[in-house]
Write a structure and sequence with these properties.
By secondary structure, the chain is an alpha/beta fold. The protein has five helices and nine strands, in the order ββαβαβαββαβαββ.
Length: about 200
């Protein structure tokens, strides 16, 4: 079983288009085999973007989408917020697609390959993620704890997690090191926001 957080250079490429309307904007995303949610915009990612835009309390100057895949979250937020967004992913094919999608959708963004925060040098006002739950609890906590460590003062970490994938226990762990709240719940998914 191949996962979207592994690199399989032998996987056949079958690039396809995903057209997506968000508010007044029309987006086109190139997708392919070997990346997360290759045939359609993922429900949890869309829920995260919608909830964040509805509840954000301020302007964010430095934003990172970690585990970005082909770029839906970062590219959509870059367009909606009119901000530069950094994006990283461990999957080479996802990074390649994300570069294409940044150009196609004409947004101010940069993407590079990084194993979670390994090649992330800056600190951010906002780190946002739909983390790869299937990679296991240790990897998930690296996404979240590592994100908290890379926040500027008053920075925020936003993420989406399924209730049946340990949302409540993850929140409990984060409460030991941060201020943490469930912002919204829908269809078994929780949007959680954390800050130092």
């Amino acid at each position: 079983m191949e996962h979207y957080f592994t690199n399989n250079q032998n996987l056949k490429s079958e690039i396809r288009d995903i057209n997506f309307n968000f508010g007044a904007y029309n987006f086109l995303f190139k997708s392919d085999n070997g990346v997360f949610s290759k045939n359609k915009i993922d429900h949890a990612s869309l829920f995260l973007v919608n909830t964040f835009l509805k509840h954000k309390k301020r302007e964010y100057e430095n934003i990172l989408d970690v585990g970005c895949g082909y770029g839906f979250i970062g590219i959509t937020l870059s367009k909606m917020l009119n901000k530069h967004i950094d994006m990283v992913d461990i999957n080479k094919r996802a990074v390649h697609l994300c570069k294409m999608n940044i150009d196609i959708n004409k947004v101010d963004a940069k993407v590079w390959e990084s194993n979670i925060y390994e090649k992330v040098l800056n600190k951010y006002d906002l780190i946002i993620s739909n983390p790869p739950i299937r990679a296991g609890k240790d990897v998930l906590m690296e996404f979240l704890k590592g994100g908290l460590e890379r926040l500027n003062k008053d920075g925020e970490l936003w993420f989406v997690i399924a209730k049946d994938k340990g949302a409540k226990s993850v929140k409990k762990q984060l409460e030991n090191i941060s201020t943490c709240e469930i912002v919204e719940k829908s269809n078994g998914f929780y949007i959680i926001s954390a800050k130092n």
